[in-house]
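Researcher: Let's do a round of design. I'm pasting the structure tokens now; please hold your answer until I've finished.
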């Protein structure tokens, strides 16, 4: 039940349709072929422990996250020094409101960030970088995003999925020595996967990389869409399809490409509803020659590199979501205490009090999940592919709800721009901007819908590894028989473990004090979730992959359980230094348990099948009369613009940052 492929670009916007010539290797791929490409790209081995994987199997492995992981003291000291200087620079030298107003990050800001080493936060010190841990890197992004989210996106796209991270994980020693010092010194990188016809389905990738006759390089041709940093980047990671041939594997391959290579044209800087300072491009490659030594990881490894890079790269996005939660909590708290209506501060009215409670508890929950993921990622003994995906999914959805609640608390002032508020002498709290800036996070680096499918695939991996051939229509009788035998052994051992557990013991987890009951609930619920998943597989078998709403609820329950676990372990670790966090953890868990209860109800009581049937009628135009009476968008242009091979006919709009004086 492999999900559709996942777009890994920093702005990989789901359901990107398109019309353009595809190479023969891509063709008009079928749904099955698209799934096979995605399945081949995913990591299949589980050679390190994963709290998230065990949770979905009904095994509450609290020992994998408790005691709360700790950072190396020397790393902390170095990071704190940088974060202090970084924060001081942002506060004194960067005008976030001007970036929003002008839709432009000034050259001087690039220079200042470069001097501080901000472009090398994740690059090893031996290459001139700062070598920060994931935890402190994410705290830096959170701080930058609080000044203006476009700065956070600039630094994140450059380091989390741009050239530094793929080279760190898959690059040769020569590649690292050649490129990383440049990037640590302030050059900007970008990641180019998405195309006009490739969003969440990379099987249709059309950019080609033809080997040159002399065997010394490749010739790239194609168009890339939504490349964050694409207008300013001097080094690019480009995904292109190498044709298969005798003695040549071919396939989607990752290349490091010089941004000023002949044949590259930045045809547009794209504009969005939020992140107005984002330097995001439509880029054309026409006969761009790339040397063989610039291939990352080998031919055909491109998608695997992209997805593996995202395991830790996804942590940057929830960092900015957590920052948005903290900012929203500050504004909501101070406003709700100051604003008086009906004789009392508005925060004392129950309708507003519930919103304040949700914002505070959820911000604590998001931060706990993120910090735990970062600390686990900093320890190579852990596999965090599920945990990182869960925190990306959870934080992007919850931060959006937080911002929406903030606007409701602020009322008319929440809908008003910061400049308009300041013009009449009021505090310029840009709530409407944060709502616009946060909206893309539910689409960035895998939309919510794609994340549900990706996590669900990993959550049922143990089942598919033993019983996949049973539900595979292409498997022969011999394969099905072997799978049946394997499944019998696996389920004979596994199913009894789901009947009883530590969560049913009244005194279990007593050391966690008032939070012990929540951990018992997590243990019981993880087993209930595993039973529900098994029942669904038994009921729908191969058709389960089409039950996307069901799988989404399974994943959302898992996310809540992971969040509950994180807050309890964190609050317990901080009980002496921050005793108030035990209250926040308890509050969060009580709210999460209500959400979980609703999600479990929705597993079996829903309108999913009715909705699918209705959608087919809607697509067929049965209810088109409902659209009458309004002016609709003109139909004289395609939904997705065509592109044709060849040299660019557009003006090059790339932006080059001049050297600092």
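Researcher: That's everything. Go ahead.
Model: Designed sequence:
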């Amino acid at each position: 039940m492999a999900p559709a492929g996942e777009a890994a670009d920093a702005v990989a916007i789901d359901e990107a349709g398109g019309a353009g010539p595809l190479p023969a290797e891509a063709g008009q791929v079928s749904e099955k072929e698209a799934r096979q490409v995605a399945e081949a790209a995913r990591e299949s081995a589980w050679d390190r422990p994963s709290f998230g994987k065990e949770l979905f199997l009904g095994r509450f492995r609290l020992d994998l996250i408790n005691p709360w992981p700790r950072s190396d003291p020397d790393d902390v000291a170095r990071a704190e020094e940088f974060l202090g200087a970084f924060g001081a620079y942002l506060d004194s030298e960067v005008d976030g409101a001007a970036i929003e107003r002008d839709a432009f990050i000034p050259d001087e800001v690039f220079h200042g960030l470069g001097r501080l080493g901000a472009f090398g936060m994740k690059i090893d010190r031996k290459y001139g970088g700062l070598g920060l841990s994931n935890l402190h890197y994410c705290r830096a992004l959170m701080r930058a995003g609080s000044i203006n989210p476009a700065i956070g996106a600039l630094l994140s796209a450059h380091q989390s999925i741009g050239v530094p991270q793929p080279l760190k994980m898959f690059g040769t020693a020569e590649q690292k020595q050649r490129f990383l010092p440049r990037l640590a010194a302030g050059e900007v990188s970008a990641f180019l996967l998405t195309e006009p016809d490739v969003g969440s389905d990379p099987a249709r990738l059309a950019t080609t990389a033809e080997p040159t006759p002399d065997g010394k390089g490749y010739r790239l041709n194609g168009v890339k869409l939504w490349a964050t940093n694409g207008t300013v980047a001097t080094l690019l990671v480009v995904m292109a399809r190498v044709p298969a041939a005798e003695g040549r594997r071919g396939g989607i391959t990752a290349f490091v490409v010089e941004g000023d290579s002949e044949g590259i044209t930045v045809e547009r800087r794209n504009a969005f509803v939020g992140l107005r300072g984002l330097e995001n491009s439509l880029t054309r490659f026409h006969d761009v020659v790339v040397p063989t030594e610039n291939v990352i990881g080998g031919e055909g490894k491109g998608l695997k590199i992209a997805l593996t890079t995202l395991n830790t790269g996804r942590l940057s996005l929830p960092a900015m979501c957590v920052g948005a939660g903290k900012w929203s909590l500050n504004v909501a708290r101070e406003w709700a205490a100051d604003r008086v209506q009906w004789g009392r501060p508005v925060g004392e009215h129950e309708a507003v009090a519930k919103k304040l409670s949700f914002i505070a508890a959820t911000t604590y929950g998001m931060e706990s999940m993120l910090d735990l993921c970062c600390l686990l990622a900093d320890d190579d003994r852990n596999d965090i592919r599920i945990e990182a995906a869960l925190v990306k999914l959870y934080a992007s959805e919850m931060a959006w709800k937080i911002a929406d609640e903030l606007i409701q608390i602020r009322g008319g002032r929440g809908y008003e721009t910061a400049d308009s508020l300041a013009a009449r002498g009021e505090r310029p709290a840009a709530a409407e901007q944060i709502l616009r800036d946060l909206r893309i996070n539910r689409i960035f680096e895998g939309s919510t819908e794609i994340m549900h499918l990706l996590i669900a695939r990993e959550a049922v991996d143990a089942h598919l590894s033993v019983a996949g051939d049973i539900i595979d229509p292409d498997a022969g009788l011999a394969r099905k028989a072997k799978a049946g035998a394997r499944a019998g052994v696996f389920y004979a051992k596994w199913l009894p473990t789901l009947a009883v557990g530590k969560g049913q013991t009244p005194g279990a987890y007593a050391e966690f004090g008032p939070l012990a009951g929540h951990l018992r609930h997590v243990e019981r619920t993880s087993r209930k979730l595993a039973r529900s998943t098994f029942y669904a597989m038994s009921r729908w078998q191969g058709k389960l992959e089409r039950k996307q709403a069901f799988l989404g609820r399974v994943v959302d329950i898992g996310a809540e359980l992971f969040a509950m676990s994180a807050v309890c372990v964190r609050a317990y670790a901080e009980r002496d230094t921050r005793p108030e966090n035990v209250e926040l953890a308890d509050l969060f868990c009580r709210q999460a348990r209500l959400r979980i209860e609703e999600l479990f109800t929705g597993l079996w009581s829903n309108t999913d099948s009715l909705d699918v049937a209705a959608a087919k009628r809607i697509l067929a135009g049965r209810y088109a009369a409902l659209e009458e009476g309004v002016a609709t968008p003109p139909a004289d242009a395609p939904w997705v613009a065509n592109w044709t091979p060849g040299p660019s006919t557009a003006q090059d709009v790339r932006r080059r940052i001049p050297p600092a004086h």
